[in-house]
Amino acid sequence: MSRDVKRNSNVLESSGEEEILTSSKKLKESSQTKNEKDSSDFSTGGKSGQPSFPNEYAGYSFQHDTSITTIDTLDLNSVCAETFFDRYIRKRKPCILNGLPPSGGKKKDDVPLNISRKLLEDLAGTKTIQVERRFNRTENFGQNRTAKRQVQLSISDFLKALLDNTDADSTSTNTNTTKENELYYWSTQEDTDDPYNIPCRQLLDHGHIPENVPIAGNLILSSCNLWMGSSEDGASSGLHHDYHDNFYLLLQGTKRFRLLSPDCAPMLHVYGTIHHIYPNGRISYVGSEAREDGVPLDELKRVNDNNPPSDENDDEEEDDDEEEIVIGKGFDYVSDEEEDDAEFDENDQKDDFDEIMGVRTGEGDEIEEVNGSKIPNQGTVDDTHPDSFSVINPCEANQDSLFEKFPEYKSCRQIVVELKAGQILYLPAGFFHEVTSYSNTNDSVQTNDMGNCHMALNYWYHPPDALGESDFGSPYKDDFWKKAQ
């Protein structure tokens, strides 16, 4: 396949864009010197005195591609999965896709996605979900994982609060009832080994959402989540990164994404202590060390210790070992109690997105179970803040004061894009983003009863670590995640 990136006619052209090397080995070698300089010149985290760490990021970077002011936009149907892998996934390059995949299901290949209130209530109205609550409309979502901010509601009660503007939580002391619906946000859920969170499992089983995003090709799914909230003035997620490759399908409302590439991590003062930034952008933290594709190092060691190499006659035993690998799904939000009792969920570091706020077991990260052991996804240095979140608030009104406090942050190139209903954002693992969500009934692909809310469906995939020109068919260096499915 050609190494040249041929842009679709609808794609924004940028002058002087440098050729991005297509060999992951060459990418790593060419950037090694600069990355080592970056990790020594800048703070390596949100706390002083943090140890140095390998910064091997070798993918696409806004820091290097200084000519662009936006990211590529192309039609979903204009490119096949293999070409998309070559141009974007392998190069770790974000982009926007116009169009959504069909809902899927038997004989529904041409039926558009359409998730209505009635559909949710009919399929899963009595199911309990975890909802994040903020105490006023100026707070960001995703910044605090304490139990008091995590509310358990039935889907029906949440929809009443969101769409009927009623107080869903009887313990709430909020008096601003006219904006009560803007205080709740539904994101990823922490329960189950099922990669399809409630109500995605119910929607999938009845043919209302696709099993996968076809253009993701051979990436292995970590989790599928529904996101809902309401904000006329805009609600921010806070600045953070995810641990998985994300395909974010916006169904209603608008989202403004502020994007920064993974090589900025040393300058962004995250709460956690960074252990390693891998060539594909995957960021690992001290206390929850993981390899490039997200497999926790301690779990990998345990599996290897328990399953020493066997000779060729042990095929039956190997099959049994395969069956033991059971991995749950990644979750974004996490309460203190949940962190204490965390399990290893297939998203050892789940992602939060659009507010994927999360880490350890929360939005953006989760916990997984492998070979019978439960391991926390993301070790959290701070009791209430995920490792992957930055202490920097990019929405702060006084930018001069912000740059004075965090001078390194000023040197980070930011690309701001707007995602509209009917579009998909592809965001590789490790890209930092702050997301501001806006409710807008006029911006919707829905023809239903969802009212004035913003709603999205996202699919998280384990980040690929085999990124050569011929790796479309096998984007991972081994079959760990494949066996874990």
Automatic annotation (TrEMBL):
Transmembrane segments: none annotated. Residues 198-476 form the JmjC domain. Pfam families: Cupin_8. Residues 41-53 have a biased composition (Polar residues). Residues 26-40 have a biased composition (Basic and acidic residues). Residues 1-58, 296-326 are annotated as: Disordered. Residues 311-325 have a biased composition (Acidic residues). This is Cupin-like domain containing protein. The lineage of its organism: Eukaryota, Sar, Stramenopiles, Ochrophyta, Bacillariophyta.
